[in-house]
Give the backbone structure.
Amino acid sequence: MTALIPCIIAGGAGTRLWPVSREAMPKPFMRLADGRSLLQKTFERVAGLADVEQLLTVINRDLLFRSLDDYRPLNQQRLSLDFLLEPCGRNTAPAVAAAALHVARHYGDDAQLLVLPADHLIGDQAAFVVAIEQARTLAEAGWLVTFGIRPGHAETGYGYIQQGAALAHGGFQVASFVEKPDALTAQGYLDGGQHLWNAGMFCFRADAVLREFREHAPQVLDAVAACLERSHPTEGKQGWQCELDSRSFAEVTDISIDYALMERSQRVAVVPCSLGWSDIGSWQAMRELVAADADGNQINGEAILHKVSNCYIDSPKRLVGAVGVRDLVIVDTPDALLIADANSTQDVKFIAQELKRRGHEAYRLHRTVVRPWGTYTVLEEGPRFKIKRIMVRPGESLSLQMHHHRSEHWIVVSGMARVVNGERDFLLNTNESTFIPAGHSHRLVNPGVIELVMIEVQSGEYLGEDDIVRFNDIYGRVPAAETLN
């Protein structure tokens, strides 16, 4: 059989899992109880497949280094890593088209592409392997294969796939794709036994899916192909990376792979399977992963409860006291608190959407922000001042940059810092500090073998994150209107 190239697609903001999932740290990077992120679990799933040597990831360019951080401790098999970096989200059809064009060009038209969302959970790896083998047989025969999960209950939060005629190579031809149903319709699907949950996972040969794109969505394929021609890949120690041209990619049609191809093609097959699957699409789905106490409560963190039942409380850093409540979901983060009726967790997305409409930072960022070199945490801010805790990993470096409207005072808490401050280049040890006036070029480097931790105090008339001029950056990132990049 031809080569199998898994492709992890990490898109979407996971708005129903706000306030833990944010635009700059979306659902695939959420940590579960075992400390692994959903992206890491997807990587482990791929690494467990036989004869897989290459992994392609399609992800927003701003999340590249976070993805590499998640992959690095798990890549024991030394999978070769390819990245297609999106400048903006255009849904799954452009992502799959770009992946198929890349695979056909680099690994052959007959190579098979296994498309996996980065934010799903699969509990049964053995069943997953069996389902993929069945899908690969169908894919080799020219089918576009999707995976249908045998439903365990009447679910209104998932799309459905209706099974059609049985196929000689196993599986079934797809009769129809169905949008998320109401409760009565979902119960009918469950009772009828012909409908499966749509898992959003696919397997097909590169030439087969490109053929279907040319027939059913040529405008998507042509636009993505033109974008790739204008994009310039690089190859280095972190793998092969291609940042898609921002101007041409923004013009690609925003459409899902289901709408663009799957609902139009006559060559779509489904493999029914039971994988212990969940798309972790809401806090209700998250709580199903946690054992409940005698009162039906699930707690992450420290909580004191009195007459409380059937509540989910996720507050790893702050004590929660609850009295006389039931059927609540409470999720606490350093800068935002969610309180929701346990039966309305699908509606959390409306909170995130309103925050985005208002331009509120709580939609986009956490107080702790991950950067290629480490992290920074906003500790306190007010008129004319902001205080941050900065952690720089050994050997890493911030950009050489300058601010027009603010000065900064750096104080080393632990480790050693190499500082560029204007014309000076010097070392700072623990308990030492330096002052950087507005208009001075500056850079922070950790030359040591332990983490560098320091406090930054900003002061000035304007402290916006867009007050930055970047001169040089070791990570090859383009200038962006963000400080501490």
